[in-house]
């Protein structure tokens, strides 16, 4: 079947047309080399037309904390508030075919007329992190909807990665699991913009977890956060308790990013991370060596014009690796 012209995909995605979104996702998810020109064209046109206020929210945290359930509740809330929502659920590949996805399908079920599009994909490895196609998929969905949620699992790398993709990061914690201490040790508590002690319906154990978390946050330095102190919300997607507060906190953080050019800086860092990730996935350490090392590569990516894929392409050309 002939591919629809990029022009038509772009207008379809901007109107949040399901078929156009599906086709655009298939285009950006194909990370082999020969489709790069089409991807670059699509992404370039989409980014040029994406309303600046459209935002990506990272929803991350340990397995089973209730991220998908909370995502479902947030999506319903934003739909009620009149905003369409896109979602990318990144699952560790080890569990991709198992019950987790089936469960997600139930948690993330919506009426056909709802303005929502959910995409599931397998992560690179079972430690979490993003899938190679996550950033492209999120960019497509952001063009279509005011909110795009990206769910990643793990304690560690996925939080770090999702922070370079999202405008706001929500860390979802499981009460009484001891994860908080682990996050603290790993320096992960510096990443989230909003913290959720989830399953608030569990009662005392949840309240204890919130108290622990708050005292740890008081201890840690808030450097790099400007004047934003991440709120801690006790919420339960199952009872609906404080889901609106989670959404409000995300919206407040999004507003906060308008101070100075925090938003622009954050997105610029994300663009560099995306181009570098693509380059390293494709050309590895040898590729980096050919462009004079990581720092030189990052500099060149920052200076290159266009989207992350344009920057990737120009870096590859510089390395004499492809055009
Ligand atoms: N008590 C309680 N349980 C919840 C709540 N939200 C979700 N759960 C349960 O927690 C379990 C995990 O929920 P998920 O939403 O799949 O959690 P997740 O973090 O997306 O899990 P993974 O993607 O597998 O890491 C399920 O059994 C849910 O029913 C809540 O608010 N309260
Ligand atoms: Mg999940």
Describe the protein's architecture and organization.
This protein is of the alpha/beta class. The chain has 3 domains: 1-49; 51-256, Rossmann fold, CATH 3.40.50.300; 260-323, no CATH class. It is 50% helix and 13% strand. It contains 13 helices and 7 strands. The chain has a 7-stranded parallel sheet, sandwiched between helices. 44% of the residues are buried. The chain binds guanosine-5'-triphosphate and magnesium ion (MG). Guanosine-5'-triphosphate binds at residues 63-69, 100, 103, 107, 153, 198-199, 201-202, 236-238.
Topology:
Blueprint: H1 6-14, H2 18-29, H3 36-49, E1 55-61, H4 67-80, E2 85-91, H5 99-107, E3 116-122, H6 134-144, E4 147-153, H7 157-163, E5 168-173, H8 179-185, E6 194-197, H9 204-219, E7 232-234, H10 243-256, H11 262-290, H12 294-303, H13 308-318
Parallel strand pairs: 1-4, 1-5, 2-3, 2-4, 5-6, 6-7
Helix pairs in contact: 1-2, 1-3, 2-6, 3-6, 4-10, 11-12, 11-13, 12-13
Magnesium ion binds at residues 67-68, 104, 151.
Key attributes of the depicted protein:
323 residues, binds magnesium ion, alpha/beta, 13 helices, single chain, 3 domains, binds guanosine-5'-triphosphate, Rossmann fold, 13% strand
